[in-house]
Amino acid sequence: MSYHHKLKIGVMGSASGPQTEDPHARAAAHKLGEEIAKRGHILINGACPGLPHDALLGAEEAGGLTIGVSPAFSEYEHVNEYLSPHDNDIILYTGQGFMERDIINIRSSDGIIIVGGGIGNAQ
Q1: In the list 17, 39, 78, 100, which could disulfide-bond 72, CB 3.0-4.6 Å?
Q2: What angle do CA 39, 45, 46 make, to 5 degrees?
Q3: What one-character DSSP code corresponds to residue 35?
Q4: Domain ranges of the chain
């Protein structure tokens, strides 16, 4: 039996702050997502706005599969309390907040790329 394992690449970083307003940083994050998808990998992110979301958009445009690991307990909380996008192909609702959610992101990924130099909604 042959088994092909797709790599899961975590893209994490700042959801807000000056780097998320930089057009060059946003374009680079978008291109990162495209490249992950073009190589047949799965993109995992924190299901929040910012540069990781730009990477998600690039992956989706390139036909990639995206998985978001949300800090929220439910879709309602994700959208209305965390004010986060609902663009991932799959979203896992952890109900664990930002820091504990990041542990799941990291442990679920085969490799991690940090964009923008921050985490979660840190400024």
Answers
A1: 78
A2: 175
A3: H
A4: 8-115
